[in-house]
């Protein structure tokens, strides 16, 4: 028996139709939390990661070793890159993959604006390679990790799946949009494909055990890890980009969703794919509530008993004013809703951060003990 967190949108113990699932980007923040839910719902997981966004060491993935501790189940892991098509082909040759949950992508908005070719190559070409390998192995079931960035600056709020896409403010979002368009064309051309694209809003928090969480490999671009570093005294102030937005307190408004609620959305999507042929369906995964940066900081300070000084800077290129979801379609068709509050998002993340102040501990074989000295 593992360390169980609360789950929603699926039935634990039911025998899944898809036995073996390939999870790309499985060692990353969202991927590792999703692997917990997949294992606890009876799926076997083959995970791959190239450690562009995740912590890796000589023994593979520290996050996935913690996932095994949480669930008491084994994860098959390969260090692999979707740009290396023969490598991906070999993995499909070794395993009878019935479905793919595709997280692997570069994801920093600011970096995408500075290095667009890197993002197009990694995100779009990586997806193209994956789809071709899937097709050649007769695997047509896919859950794609998309993003609310495909909506651009919202014309109206809350955002439903019918909201226009394409007027995107950053390169990262454009890669997600181009992939969605690719999947649309693919599902029209070949009706064997059965695809759900999940448009995430803003994932935060950590597994309630405190054993896994967000451990950025690059400079802290996501709000909550940066906030926690300030709360720990590792950084002097939290930089907030823009306090002149047309919002109640001038800071940007987002729909923050607990990463474990997000994970359960993937299990719910898999359940729908296994029960029905949907062709291509798109769902928003969010809470349906907008929370400003300032409001999130206030809650974090309150539940953790810490203080987070703010320093305001100019708006970042590519950022938008306010965005939150209408997630009623996911509730109706996937049987999925969020169950965790902003307070829980902050509490769970703080537990992870205080239990792991330096993030994941790496095992490096170079640090061997020789004659009593390392």
TrEMBL record:
Q: Does the keyword Isomerase apply?
A: yes
Give the matching InterPro entries: NAD(P)-bd_dom, NAD(P)-bd_dom_sf, UDP_G4E
PANTHER family for this protein: UDP-GLUCOSE 4-EPIMERASE
Q: Which keywords, in A-to-Z order, does the entry hold?
A: Carbohydrate metabolism, Galactose metabolism, Isomerase, NAD
Q: What is the similarity comment for this entry?
A: Belongs to the NAD(P)-dependent epimerase/dehydratase family.
Give the organism's phylogenetic lineage. Eukaryota, Metazoa, Ecdysozoa, Arthropoda, Hexapoda
| EC number(s) stated in the UniProt entry for this protein | 5.1.3.2
Q: Classify the source by domain of life.
A: Eukaryota
Q: Which cofactor does it need?
A: NAD(+)
Q: In which pathway does it act?
A: Carbohydrate metabolism; galactose metabolism
- Location of the NAD(P)-binding domain: 22-348
Record has Metal-binding as a keyword? no
UniProt function note: Catalyzes two distinct but analogous reactions: the reversible epimerization of UDP-glucose to UDP-galactose and the reversible epimerization of UDP-N-acetylglucosamine to UDP-N-acetylgalactosamine. The reaction with UDP-Gal plays a critical role in the Leloir pathway of galactose catabolism in which galactose is converted to the glycolytic intermediate glucose 6-phosphate. It contributes to the catabolism of dietary galactose and enables the endogenous biosynthesis of both UDP-Gal and UDP-GalNAc when exogenous sources are limited.
What does it catalyze? Answer: UDP-alpha-D-glucose = UDP-alpha-D-galactose; UDP-N-acetyl-alpha-D-glucosamine = UDP-N-acetyl-alpha-D-galactosamine
Subunit and partners? Homodimer.
Record protein name field = UDP-glucose 4-epimerase
| SUPFAM superfamilies recorded | NAD(P)-binding Rossmann-fold domains
């Amino acid at each position: 028996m593992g360390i169980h967190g609360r789950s929603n949108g699926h039935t634990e113990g039911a025998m899944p139709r898809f036995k073996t699932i390939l999870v790309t980007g499985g060692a990353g923040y969202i991927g590792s939390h999703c692997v917990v839910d997949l294992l606890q719902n009876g799926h076997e997981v083959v995970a791959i990661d190239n450690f562009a966004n995740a912590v890796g060491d000589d023994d593979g993935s520290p996050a996935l070793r913690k996932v095994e501790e949480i669930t008491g189940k084994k994860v098959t892991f390969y260090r692999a890159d979707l740009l290396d098509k023969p490598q991906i082909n070999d993995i499909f040759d070794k395993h009878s993959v019935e479905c793919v949950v595709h997280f692997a992508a570069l994801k920093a908005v600011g970096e995408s604006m500075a290095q667009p070719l890197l993002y197009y190559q990694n995100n779009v070409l990586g997806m193209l390679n994956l789809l071709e390998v899937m097709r050649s192995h007769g695997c047509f079931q896919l859950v794609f990790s998309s993003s609310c960035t495909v909506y651009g600056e919202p014309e109206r709020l809350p955002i439903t799946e019918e909201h226009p896409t394409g007027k995107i403010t950053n390169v990262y979002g454009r890669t997600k949009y181009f992939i969605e368009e690719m999947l649309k064309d693919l599902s029209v051309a070949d009706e064997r494909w059965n695809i759900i694209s999940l448009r995430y809003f803003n994932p935060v928090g950590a597994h309630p055990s405190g054993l896994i969480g967000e451990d950025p490999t690059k400079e802290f671009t996501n709000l909550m890890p940066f906030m926690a570093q300030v709360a720990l005294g590792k950084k002097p102030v939290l930089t907030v980009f823009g306090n002149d937005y047309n919002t109640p307190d001038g800071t940007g408004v987002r729909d923050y969703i607990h990463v474990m609620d997000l994970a359960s959305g993937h299990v719910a999507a898999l359940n729908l794919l296994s029960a029905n042929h949907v062709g291509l369906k798109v769902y928003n995964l969010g809470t349906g509530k907008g929370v400003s940066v300032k409001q999130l900081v206030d809650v974090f300070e309150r539940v953790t008993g810490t203080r987070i000084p703010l320093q305001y800077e100019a708006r970042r290129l590519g950022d938008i004013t306010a965005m939150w979801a209408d997630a009623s379609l996911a509730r109706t068709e996937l049987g999925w809703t969020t169950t965790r509050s902003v307070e829980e998002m902050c509490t769970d993340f703080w537990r992870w951060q205080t239990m792991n102040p330096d993030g994941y501990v790496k095992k490096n074989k170079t640090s061997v003990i020789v004659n009593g000295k390392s």
